[in-house]
Fold this sequence. Notes:
Layout: H1 2-13, H2 20-39, H3 58-86
Helix pairs in contact: 1-2, 2-3
Amino acid sequence: MRIRRTLYKWSYKLSPLVPSELVADCFALAREIRTLDMRASPYELADLGYPAVRVETPEGRAEYAAAQRGFAERAAVLRARLLAALD
């Protein structure tokens, strides 16, 4: 997922050339990715509003993989928007 967070990093660094809406969209994706990472970690964060993704179970792995696919699809759209903004 580092690639998705890189979208935010570069959109922010290029913010004079990139619309702020795109930077915000990249940040939102990076935040959601980080949230999933925290939910899949071995730490119990349910009390903080982050229910666990039980990656040790088949259901949890399927949930995690589905979320990753969704992030990849969204990142592809954001990457295309970023490249278009730089053209």
